[in-house]
Design brief:
ten-stranded mixed sheet; 401 residues; two-stranded antiparallel sheet; 16 strands; globular; alpha/beta
Length: 401
């Protein structure tokens, strides 16, 4: 590797697996050139979270990062780790700095059958990770009060809109926002990723009800597509398709997959977990953050597997699924190879993915997959044994080249 890969280490059981993947599957075969950032909770606390900011800036500089799962602390974690404060989500910080869109895709293997029988190909969820209810302002309203939306112009003039007159009952209100700049970045990330993967792109809102808020998303997507991407899509034989969110859900359930589904923030939050579960497991779900300027950050879609980590600390055996973390590494290595014109690195990444899938399809897998697999013969192995099993198949593939 010539250009450094930004490496973001993490927390708990995924941190343990991270090191094992490097020792067993990467370092014996390739010369890793990484710019390392420890995003473990202790180091974030020690640096006042500056290390998270630094890792995101490095990703903008070098273009490709791979990230281990990290803890977003709650009150209990603040006490457990004796933190100075309840630090923000590292993923949220990195997303904001990169102005990125999150794409989640399932890893398809024989024997792990989707709960939706029609699904034969991956469905990739693209989630707009800014605004809406995630940056809301809300309040409880007393009977007899009135809620208004007020917009103040530069010259001080006000536009007022009645939200509701709570004359006869208590109630609740919520104010949400988004920005033209963020929606444009989201649209370009989705169109670029569709071109990158040569896949159809679907987008859906509820513009028939939300005639300004949701309709603006629809209009921006359409304007950017027509001005910048129509010719590219047609030359690749792929389609941009818009529909209402309820129609999209119905179509998704009847489809065979094989497309990117772009969703507004809340829809993406919900639908990504639905798709992950329906395809089998969060442990078999990849996640990549893509910036509109072409920076990529790869990670697993799941968390730090806390329950297994506490067992690990007691010296007890664990059978933790490492596939999504492993595919974060292969995704990042493959993209680094593509950007650098390093065909050998791309070939190695694809070889490692093949070895991983072959291991599971041979019936060797961790406990969570044993419960899901329909293969007639299955063998449950522990966390490290699975990586060594992958390693044996990787060695055979590597030596055969």
């Amino acid at each position: 590797m010539t250009t450094p890969l930004v490496e973001m280490d993490g927390d708990e059981m995924t941190r343990v697996i991270w090191q094992k993947i490097k020792e067993i599957l990467l370092e014996p075969y390739i010369e890793l050139n990484t710019e390392y950032y420890d995003l473990g909770l202790e180091k974030r606390d020690e640096t006042g979270d500056q290390i998270t900011i630094d890792s995101a800036e490095a990703t903008k500089k070098y273009g490709v990062a791979v990230k281990c799962a990290t803890i977003t602390p709650n009150a209990q974690r603040v006490e457990e780790y004796k933190l100075k404060e309840m630090w923000k989500s590292p993923n949220g910080t990195i997303r904001a700095i990169l102005d990125g869109t999150v794409f989640r895709a399932p890893i398809i293997v024989k024997g792990i059958e989707p709960l939706v029988s029609a699904w034969k190909k991956p469905i990739i969820i693209a989630r707009h990770a800014y605004g809406d209810m995630y940056k809301n302002v809300e309040d409880k309203v007393k009977k007899g009060e009135k809620a208004e939306l007020v917009v103040t112009a530069k010259d001080g003039a006000e536009r007022r809109f009645l939200v509701h007159d709570f004359a006869s009952t208590d109630g609740i209100i919520q104010g949400v926002h988004n920005t033209k700049e963020s929606i444009e970045s989201f649209a370009r990330c989705c169109f670029n990723y569709a071109v990158d993967l040569k896949m159809d792109l679907w987008f859906a809102t509820k513009d028939t009800i939300s005639k300004k808020y949701h309709h603006t998303f629809k209009d921006i997507f359409e304007e950017i597509y027509e001005a910048e991407y129509d010719a590219k899509f047609k030359s690749l034989g792929i389609e941009y398709f818009y529909t209402l969110i309820d129609d999209a859900v119905a179509r998704v359930m009847r489809s065979d997959g094989g497309y990117i589904w772009a969703c507004m923030n809340y829809d993406g939050d919900v639908m990504s977990d639905m798709v992950a579960t329906a395809f089998g497991s969060l442990g078999m779900m990849t996640s990549v953050l893509v910036s509109p300027t072409g920076a990529y950050e790869y990670e697993a879609a799941h968390g730090t597997v806390t329950r297994h980590y506490y067992k690990h600390l007691k010296g007890e055996e664990t059978s933790t699924n490492s596939v999504a973390t492993l595919f974060a590494w292969t995704g990042a290595l493959n993209k680094r190879g593509e950007l650098d014109g390093n065909a050998e690195l791309c070939k190695f990444a694809q070889m490692l993915e093949k070895a991983t899938i072959e291991t599971i399809e041979s019936g060797v897998m961790t406990g969570d997959l044993v419960m899901l697999s329909t293969l007639p013969e299955k063998k449950k192995v522990n966390t490290e044994e699975f990586l060594h099993e992958v390693g044996e198949r990787l060695k055979r593939l590597y030596n055969a080249c």
